[in-house]
Amino acid sequence: MPIDMTHIERLAKLLETSGVTSIEIDDEGQSLKLVMETSAIGMTSSVRADAISSSEETLVIAKADVAGHFLATHPWRAKPFAEPGQQIEAGAIVGLVKIGLLYAPVLSPAAGILDAITAEAGAMVGYGTPIASIRPTAETA
Amino acid sequence: MIEILSALGPTSVQDLGRFEQYRFGVGTSGAMDDVALRAGNILLGNDENAAGIEIPVTPFKLRFGRDRAFALTGAEVEADVGGRAIPPWWRSRAHTGEILTIKAMSRGARSYLTLSGGIDVPVVLGSRSTQFRGEFGGFEGRPLQTGDVLPCAAPNPSAETSDLGVGPADLVLARPNMPAGDTTVRVIIAGEYDAFDSTAQKLFWRSGWKITPQSNRYGYRLQGPAVNPVSPIEKRSHGIVAGVIQIPPNGQPIIQMRDAQTSGGYPKIATVIKADMWRVAQARLGSTLRFEQTAYADALAAEDEVSVYLDRLRADVRLFAELQGCR
Q1: Distance to chain B for A105, nearest Cα, Å
Q2: Which CATH number does A55-141 carry?
Q3: Residue B86 lies in a domain
């Protein structure tokens, strides 16, 4: 789905009402970043035409699909969702993005061995921010 | 429909409660932790009064008869559906035939399973809650047993069902500077408070009260130093509500809970405020409860805090669904 103006307006409105300060979207070679000015209701946007090329061929990347703060561990628990070296299933939760009172899961796109959690705990992440790298098992690679 | 494969103790169907029949002596029943039940229903786009299952004992196991979204809130449990681990306070989706297993409860005392659409047992006297004392409501008026098959109502077709968690009430509504391990609840002094002298009153406020194994949906029996009135009080039975703390002749307080009788005659020293009843509901057997005196206005403010938490939850769930729709 290409990014069009109505989507941008809608996203801007959501940013405004949610108190989230920025959002980043990568979609079919387009990338969009919306940043809310904290002082005014102004908004800057930049659309880059170049596609983001993946730097690692052997790793698959689990990405955030919503903007918020990254959590590697559920706040009630001591152990993170996944640790490097651990075997994980496709669709396994590798972390959470906290948005308001909600925790949206970041899911592994493939089965494999967790290589690393690349996002920093507590860091602000956006749509498409890489969260974890996974070395897929041979069958699914 | 869902089929119960394993249920222990007083695991039961509960909604928010039965509030219109109190004057006839029919207790409210309803979820002991109503905040957790509401949160689960909000996640699922259900009516917040939709009936769920209150699970006070593990293991618990059930099979889904068809694809259905569900949520687990309340106590922290180790749970999985079809082998996929379910984090705390979480919405997920089960496929036809998959089994939900709740293995262990590591924090809190009651887990709530809510289902998209809600459990569709008949409404009796205005509620789907199980009335243990009267043996009506819920599923055949009794605790759930292995082999029970519960009907579920049609899900809300516009509700999102992707995996999503919410901040547990005890994190978001945590009160600052509370001693770790104990549960402190706010109370308002009640009718017979002045019948206790200052020594007895101090004992009540300053003691840690152990929740005995004789504590359940009817009431929590507490153990500590004997708190006795200056002279014995014998009152005629009069109307009481959940939260009332009675002092029977042995001086050991009893907190009335959701299945309590609607009347009693023991002297009332205090009443737990409504906003803290869910904290009592999640306090574990053997743990320590403490009472903190509060004023009526502060009790109302505490209720507002719970309302604000639930309002934010509703707003955030709606916003998140819109964000998903944007893509």
Answers
A1: 7
A2: 2.40.50.100
A3: yes
pLDDT in tens, A36-78: 765 433 333 333 333 344 444 589 999 999 999 999 999 999 9
User: Per residue in B17-75, pLDDT tens?
Assistant: 999 999 999 999 999 999 999 999 999 999 999 999 999 999 999 999 999 999 999 99
Coil/strand/helix, residue B200: helix
- Count of A–B CB contacts within 8 Å? 68
Q: Is residue B72 part of a domain?
A: yes
The one-letter amino acid at B243:
G
The number of distinct structural domains making up chain B is: 2
Note whether B187 and B284 are same-domain residues. yes
Q: Which residue has the tokens 């004057």?
A: B23
The domain spans of chain A are 1-53, 55-141
Q: Do A101 and B84 touch (CB under 8 A)?
A: no
* Chain A neighbors of B105, CB-CB under 8 A: none
What is the per-residue pLDDT across B199-250, written as a single tens digit (0 to 9) for each?
Answer: 999 999 999 999 999 999 999 999 999 999 999 998 999 999 999 999 999 9
Nearest-CA distance B86 → chain A (Å): 10
pLDDT of res. A45: 37
All residues at 6 or more sequence positions from B143 whose CB lies less than 8 Å from its CB, including other chains: B7, B9, B10, B11, B12, B130, B132
Question: Nearest residue of B to residue A2 by CA position?
Answer: B327
Residue B301 lies in a domain: no
